[in-house]
């Protein structure tokens, strides 16, 4: 049965022996060196003093002496016994014997010439440490280089390469960005048939900037462009250019562009390009010696260095286009800007249908209902929601995902997981009236969407939440709607004060939402008594933007802005307080129901307070989730 034996792979054995060979060589050399330094082998004899040797010679027991420097090997008569002795350096064995009354002629004395051996040992003592160090470092560098972590690889690009032969992502695999796909289809045509455009004198775009919030599919769309064009795809994050060593970022840029040019036509994708492409002189990064600035300069040089025949297109992705240096986004570098936004209803349905393909669902699960429930979700949020729903169903040993799993998954993605710790009766009562206050004020405010869910189940840092998801997508806000949203946000604290005669810290996030809306109304939208004016509350660079604009906004104007913001917030609080006083009975009933069953959906809530009446002509748009 020899043929049935499992053979050790030959290549693995060879590699093992090669790896061991270096260690064996170094070990043997070191052993030989230190052995020779110690005076060679002992020949198996015992170590005895010189006086014992003299006595044995007098007794006629010794046959001969063998001298090697200060080392004496004694051979005895009649047997193979050998012993070792040593004399003082510089002393003659003849004088030692004569001084002890022994005639040297009575014993054979053989003196070995060790001058040549000493010469070699001197040479080895000098060269062997050097040879060992060279062999050691050569082996270390070779192993490190094979592992891709050699010191010499600091300047090499860390871009992940997806060859054109690898499984490709196509435009059909990307849903929810139809307008963006149309824009990028021309880039695909440039890569596939450049001669068609050259014949008309058109210039191939050097760069495309994908702009949009996190999770909308910028990276996936860039890979789809490469897949449609059938070209190599080099993917790297902006932060991967940076290293602790100065000059590494620029070296990696040069290496990546050189590799891409060799593989042309090809695509270079730089994710989070704002990490290396931010405006020079901003954020404390200034001066030509800054590593980030050197890296940016090298990218600009490389993009300028493309010849018309080099079909290499750079795709950058960012969610902060306002931070990018103007030299990077000018025509001739990033010629095109493609903006990706949050998916609308039809786009969400398309995204959901892709992620539902490999999952079983109950028959009553409605894809359109899921899409309407998830306004404001990105493609990544939708994928995560469906995955969480599958996990929840598996946790309860279900055969298919149902509506309850989807509802819980959507809430978990938006607000975080439930907190299981027990709440005191006092905390539960506080949370119930707080959330009931949001729900009742929102219900009786005509420009706020219907309550979808109100609960006192704690999640993350909140003791409950009330959601008002819209029934339609919309891009604009009205002044009336913003004022009603502020009143609804104030409803939680107003209910606490009305019923419990005290207020808690639970309204902190509500006040933050209300204040941000009021400040935007005054500073951005011209929806205050200051009139149609915009003084830029949307800080581009945080404190630096405010400092930069400080000279253009007078102290008097800043004071008037604060007064207007405070006035809008006070009016919103009074509106919430008035609604709750008029509908105190409804407030108590909603709070009581929450204490009993913890969560109310739309139907259960409207059984208590009645059907929501929305004035004709009012479109709905996403409302904040209040806690």
From TrEMBL:
The name this protein carries in UniProt is ATP-dependent zinc metalloprotease FtsH
List, in alphabetical order, the Gene Ontology terms for molecular function in this entry: ATP binding; ATP hydrolysis activity; ATP-dependent peptidase activity; metalloendopeptidase activity; zinc ion binding
- Keyword tags: ATP-binding, Cell cycle, Cell division, Cell membrane, Hydrolase, Membrane, Metal-binding, Metalloprotease, Nucleotide-binding, Protease, Transmembrane, Transmembrane helix, Zinc
Q: Where does this one sit in the cell?
A: Cell membrane; Membrane
Q: Where does Zn(2+) bind?
A: 434, 438, 510
Its chief place of residence is membrane
* Family as reported in the entry's similarity comment: Belongs to the AAA ATPase family.
The portions of this protein that span the membrane are: 12-34, 119-141
Q: Keyword check for Nucleotide-binding, yes or no.
A: yes
């Amino acid at each position: 049965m020899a043929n049935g034996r499992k053979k050790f792979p030959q290549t693995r054995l060879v590699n093992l022996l090669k790896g061991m060979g270096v260690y064996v060589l170094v070990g043997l050399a070191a052993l030989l060196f230190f052995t020779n330094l110690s005076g060679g082998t002992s020949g198996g004899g015992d170590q005895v003093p010189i006086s014992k040797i003299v006595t044995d010679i007098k007794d006629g027991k010794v046959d001969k002496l063998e001298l090697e420097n200060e080392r004496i090997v004694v051979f005895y008569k009649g047997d193979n016994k050998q012993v070792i002795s040593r004399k003082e350096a510089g002393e003659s064995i003849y004088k030692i014997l004569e001084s002890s009354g022994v005639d040297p002629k009575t014993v054979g004395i053989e003196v070995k010439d060790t001058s040549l051996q000493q010469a070699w040992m001197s040479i080895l003592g000098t060269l062997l440490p050097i040879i060992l160090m060279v062999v050691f470092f050569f082996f270390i560098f070779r192993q490190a280089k094979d592992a891709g972590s050699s010191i010499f690889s600091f300047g090499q690009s860390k871009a992940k390469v997806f060859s054109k032969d690898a499984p490709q992502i196509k435009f059909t695999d990307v849903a929810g960005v139809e307008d963006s796909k149309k824009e990028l289809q021309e880039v695909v045509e440039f890569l596939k048939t450049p001669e068609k455009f050259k014949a008309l004198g058109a210039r191939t775009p050097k760069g495309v900037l994908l702009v949009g919030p996190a999770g909308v599919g910028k990276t996936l769309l860039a890979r789809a462009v490469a897949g449609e064009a059938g070209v190599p795809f080099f993917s790297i994050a902006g932060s991967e250019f940076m290293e602790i060593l100065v000059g590494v970022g620029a070296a990696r840029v040069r290496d990546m562009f050189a590799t891409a040019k060799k593989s042309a036509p090809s695509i270079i994708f730089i994710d989070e390009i704002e990490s290396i492409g931010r405006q020079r002189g901003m954020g404390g990064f200034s001066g030509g010696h800054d590593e980030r600035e050197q890296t940016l300069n090298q990218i600009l040089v490389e993009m300028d260095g493309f010849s018309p025949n080099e079909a290499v297109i750079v795709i950058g992705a960012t969610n902060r286009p306002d931070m990018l240096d103007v030299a990077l986004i000018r025509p001739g570098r990033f010629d095109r800007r493609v903006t990706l936004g949050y998916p609308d209803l039809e786009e969400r349905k398309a995204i959901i249908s892709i992620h539902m393909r490999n999952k079983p669902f109950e028959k009553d699960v409605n894809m359109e209902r899921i899409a309407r429930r998830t306004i404001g979700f990105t493609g990544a949020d939708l994928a995560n929601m469906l995955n969480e729903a599958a996990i929840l169903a598996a946790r309860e040993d279900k055969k298919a995902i149902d509506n309850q799993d989807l509802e819980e998954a959507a809430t978990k993605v938006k607000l975080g997981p439930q907190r299981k710790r027990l709440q005191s009766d006092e905390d539960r009562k506080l949370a119930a009236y707080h959330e009931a206050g949001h729900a009742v004020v929102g219900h009786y405010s005509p420009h706020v969407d219907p309550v979808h869910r109100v609960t006192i189940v704690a999640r993350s840092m909140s003791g409950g939440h009330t959601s008002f998801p819209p029934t339609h997508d919309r891009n604009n806000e009205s002044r009336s709607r913003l004022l009603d949203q502020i009143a609804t946000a104030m409803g939680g604290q107003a209910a606490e004060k009305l019923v419990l005669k005290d207020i808690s810290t639970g309204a902190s996030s509500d006040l933050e939402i209300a204040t941000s809306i009021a400040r935007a109304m005054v500073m951005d939208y011209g929806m205050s008594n200051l009139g149609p004016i915009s003084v830029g509350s949307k800080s581009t660079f945080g404190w630096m933007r405010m400092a930069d604009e400080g000279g253009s906004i007078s102290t008097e104007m800043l004071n008037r802005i604060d007064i207007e913001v405070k006035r809008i917030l006070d009016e919103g609080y009074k509106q919430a307080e008035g609604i709750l006083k008029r509908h105190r009975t409804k407030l108590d009933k909603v709070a009581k129901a929450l204490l009993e069953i913890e969560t109310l959906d739309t139907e259960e809530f409207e059984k208590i307070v009645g059907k929501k009446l929305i004035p004709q002509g009012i479109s709905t748009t996403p409302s904040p989730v209040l806690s």
